[in-house]
Amino acid sequence: MRSRRELLQIFAAGTGLAAIPGAARAQSEPLEPTPSCGATGATTPTATAGPYFRPGSPERTDVTEGRASGTPILIGGRVLDRDCRPLRRALVDLWQADEDGRYDTTGTYLRGHQYTDGDGRWAFATIVPAPYTFRSMHIHFRVQRPGGDVLTTQVFFPGDPSHDRDRQFDPRLLLALSRADATRVGRFDFVLA
Ligand SMILES: [Fe+2]
């Protein structure tokens, strides 16, 4: 298992994934970059929490609980303010469906939270979620700077054919997908007011 430190290095600010040996853009995906904090001054769009949020998730980096099922992926990025300044000690809380499109509604599988480091970085080791009824592939997040309002949102996967049937899909919330060696990597920077 990768340490939190190793995971954060993969998403290290300023290096970009191209600097990681073996990293390459996913093929055939004409990716829109994650909307940047400086480009529009806009904050990350919100999305509904849905019915599956549960408070009290464990603080951790790896939310797979050692299960071998599903396709591993590292999801990470930074939490920034509108002026592109990293926000440290921001809460990032993740919950998502498994490879069959199901949520763990009694335990903590594929649920977890952590706090950004001094460069605003966060990263989780998780699996690729499956789409489920009327929903495309997505991962839920609650993000909160110290003392700030909670941003509730979701991130989506480029190239997922089920976007069309998902009324909640928002192209501004697409992950930037790539690979670090054999590992799938999805990057997203949250921008808070
Ligand atoms: Fe969901």
Describe it.
- This protein is mainly beta.
- It is built from 2 helices and 10 strands, in the order αβαβββββββββ.
- The chain is globular and about 40 Å long.
- The termini are far apart.
- About 9% of the residues have low confidence.
- The site of fe (ii) ion has 6 residues, from strand 6.
- The site of fe (ii) ion (FE2) has 6 residues, from strand 6.
- GO terms for molecular function: ferric iron binding; oxidoreductase activity, acting on single donors with incorporation of molecular oxygen, incorporation of two atoms of oxygen.
- InterPro entries: Intradiol_dOase_C (IPR000627), Intradiol_dOase_core (IPR015889), Intradiol_RC_Dioxygenase (IPR050770), TAT_signal (IPR006311).
- Keywords: Dioxygenase, Oxidoreductase.
- This is Intradiol ring-cleavage dioxygenase.
* Separation, N- and C-terminal Cα atoms: 34 Å
Whole-number tally of structural domains: 1
What's the story with the biggest beta sheet? 6 strands, mixed
Bound molecules: fe (ii) ion
The helix-and-strand class reads mainly beta
What is the CATH T-level topology? Protocatechuate 3,4-Dioxygenase, subunit A
The number of distinct helices, counting runs of at least 4 residues, comes to 2
Q: What's the overall average pLDDT, rounded?
A: 88
CATH class wording: Mainly Beta
Percent helix, as a range, is: under 10%
Mass-distribution shape: globular
The CATH homologous superfamily: Aromatic compound dioxygenase
Protein name: Intradiol ring-cleavage dioxygenase
Biased composition (Low complexity): 34-51
Keywords: Dioxygenase, Oxidoreductase
Domain Intradiol ring-cleavage dioxygenases: 50-164
